[in-house]
Amino acid sequence: MSDVQSATGSTAAIKLEWNAGLMQGAQVQESAKKIGDLENLFRDRDAWAGIDPAQEVYRVRWWAPVPAGSEGGLFWGVTVLQPGKVGNEFFMTQGHIHANQTRAEFYTTVSGKGLLLQMDRERNTLAEQMTTGSLHYIHGQNAHRVVNVGDSPLIFWACWGSDAGYDYATIRERGFSAIIIEQDASPMIVHRS
Ligand code: S6P
Ligand code: ZN
Question: Is the pLDDT of residue 2 over 60?
Fold first, then answer.
């Protein structure tokens, strides 16, 4: 046991509640995005302005066992994305590219129904279905965004590099080359430039 106790590592006690999308422990961090935080994300600005700005769209809980930017470490987190629409566009995450584009990421879904959009540097977009048990590999250079196309919370867990970083500006400026709207009670991909 003495070898284990002297090894480099974290003694953080983190408890997961997989299906609820909960992480508990002193080192768990948490951030929520509400409608009011997501101006200019959705296509229909009037519909966005008509929704209570306090309405939660998604919440992320994560554990960073090493400081952000540390080379070779890993972060672990969960996102709970609520069901809903702005106009006919489904609730979604902002989406980002990793600032270090050599850093990939895993997502796995525990509940709900969603689409994972990955967009490469040429703005080609791939949509993968997210359902209970689906596992997704996000290439380091791909922008990624998740869309909840169901009527219950979409809960997915993620593991990514501590030195991946976040570039939100690129997506904020040009968006994705595809958006997901509801048409005839089904999700539909609409391609854009
Ligand atoms: C981090 C990972 C997720 C997202 C989360 C929210 O690399 O991809 O934890 O941060 O799903 O999405 P966004 O685009 O607002 O960061
Ligand atoms: Zn990411």
Answer: no
